[in-house]
Amino acid sequence: MVNQRPSQSKRPFHIDKVLIGLLLLMAVLSLIAIYGAIPLTASNINGKELFIKQILFYLSGFALLSGLLIFGIDRLFTGIRVFYWILMILLVLLLVDKVINLPLIWPVNGTRAWIFLPGISLQPSEFMKIVLIIMTANIVDEHNRSLTQVTYGSDIRLFLKVLKIALPPLFLIFLQPDTGIPVIIVISIIAILAVSGIKKQWIWLGVLALFLGFGGVIFLFETRPDLLASILGAPYKLNRFYGWLETEKYILTWGNQLYTALLAVGSSGWTGHGLQSSLIRFAEPQNDFIFAVVAKNHGFLGTASVLLASLILDLKLLHIAYKYDQPRERYLVAGLLGILLYQQFQNMGMIVGILPITGVTLPFISYGGSSLWSFMIPLAIILHMSSENHSRTLH
């Protein structure tokens, strides 16, 4: 039986003050962290300019959030394919630039992932990861509404529908080359599928595949590192494993980033070395190593504040989704939480040595406009969900 989805509510909008307060708290923590990283930025980067830009990113991000709420959440879901194809065109242009030098595009650290406009750079892949969770939520919702019985065949048809939209951008992003965002996209899609009502055997199969994949990486690392390097896309990514597993042996090369991060965390005590202290230096302090900057400057109290704020934000999003009565938006929140939890665990984990160093940033804390703006898209939907929850409670 096909269920009809109710039209978007015309009830008064109720602002979730707790969620807005958490976003403002993340903004404050981000600005303090980036301000503290100013003395550590590379000589060719103006740290004060980054700090000012982050303020503008947050202000424009909140403006985008408001604009999306006015635009309408249903329109955002129904019109998402337009944004998908715009981003696909941009991803193709980034690939074409490898052959033909195009204006507004040039490589950064060997990766063609940004389009440079006057005063700002845009990373299409950051927006694509959000567009894909919205499209996947749409696909799952439409699939389930026309479903009479869950079978292995119906699950496979669902998987194929998702792969049809996900594989092309994943392939283009991987060729930039970038493996970080494809991993984030895959995790977010798996999170949505895990709560979509598919047979539980698929989840157990996924867990088994995860363990086998991890075991395969370790096996190749020990026996065929050359093959593993080719799979990862670049030899330097394999060196990160050496730097992670044998940090002190490679203290001056591949393990130096992790060693300095551990030194910052281990020496900072309860309150750290002070704001803008430059006792310990990092590469990319405003992005990948922002959590290490917080540890160095503010010690345990600073890192605990960032960790706790991130955790409370995640729980708030989960609580809103739990109370909401429509599955499409709940699928989206599952995908968003998959992104947030992975990036938070990966970024903080690599700073304390639990995971190898990667280029994954810390959501809402690290410097960057594309990532911050992209997160405002699902947050607009979640604010609408919270308003609907409040209206139902009143009635």
Structural class given helices, strands, pairing? mainly alpha
Run of helices and strands: HHHHEEHHHHHHHHHH
How far apart, in Å, are the first and last alpha carbons? Answer: 29 Å
Q: Low-confidence parts lasting 5 or more residues at pLDDT below 50?
A: none
- Radius of gyration, rounded? 22 Å
Q: Which percent band covers the strand fraction?
A: under 5%
Sheet with most strands: 2 strands, antiparallel
What is the structure about, briefly put?
With 395 residues, this protein is mainly alpha-helical. Helix content is 68%, strand content 2%. Helix 6 (152-174) packs antiparallel against helix 7 and helix 7 packs across helix 13.
Describe this structure in words.
The protein is mainly α and 395 residues long. The protein has one domain. It contains 14 helices and 2 strands; from the N terminus they run ααααββαααααααααα. The protein has a two-stranded antiparallel sheet. Strand 1 and strand 2 form a beta hairpin. Helix 6 packs antiparallel against helix 7 and helix 11 crosses helix 12. The chain is globular, with a radius of gyration of 22 Å. The two termini are 29 Å apart.
Task: Kindly list the characteristics that best describe this protein.
395 residues; mainly alpha; 2 strands; 68% helix
List the helices and strands and how they pair.
Blueprint: H1 17-36, H2 47-71, H3 73-78, H4 80-96, E1 115-117, E2 120-122, H5 124-145, H6 152-174, H7 180-194, H8 200-223, H9 225-232, H10 235-245, H11 256-267, H12 290-323, H13 327-351, H14 369-394
Antiparallel strand pairs: 1-2
